[in-house]
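User:
I would dearly like some help making sense of a protein record. Take your time, and here it is.
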Amino acid sequence: MEVSTDGIVLKARPYGERDMILTLLTPEHGRITVLARSVGKNKKQSVLYAQNFVFSHFVLFKGKGMYVVNSADVHEAFYGLRQDLSRLALAQYFVDVAAKSGAETDAAALCSLLLNSLYLLSSTDLDERLIKLVYETKYCIIEGVFPEVTCARCGKQPAKWSFRDGFCCEECGNGYPITQGMISALRHISQNEGKKAYLFSMNDDSVHYLSKLLSDYVSFVTDTDFLSLEYYRSLRITL
């Protein structure tokens, strides 16, 4: 049986001497594993489709085991990522987070979020820190794990964030302090779609603090310490 689908490569690893195992994020089928045979040996087909971040249209054959790639036509390779080590590391973090999506995830929404974020990282000069804030917030919304940005107990304006209990006001609970500017940014991200979600501004201290909170929250809800995130942070310090 043949299956035709678009897909983003989240992970590529060698399998034997010539083959590759690809983890794809697809709008229709979610996260799937496919076998790419004799990568680089077929002169009629580029090997580009089998690299991380590359977005292609795949024709797959579904056999008794995993899908097998019949053909792949590259839509977008995001070449700009290869020209900036910090943005490349952040892109790797994005795909690592996407690889933790659940079975019930809205795969089309996650694909759109990942593609938008990779495009903005690769092809624009938009502050990568703001792209990161949007990606992490939207990812949690898509996964159904981002709390309402109001006090979970009384509905007032929140001033703290507990990863276990949600947002809360000064009187109703404990958590990490969060400013009204950060609350406004999170509401802006939550309420807007597409490129508009990325168009906001914050001072450097707030961006740094909220970025750390969101990364910690993503690690909390996925129960994962992302090595790609640690590498990205090390580059931000040294570059």
User: Anything to note?
Assistant: The helical segments are 85-98, 107-123, 128-142, 180-191, 204-222, 227-238.
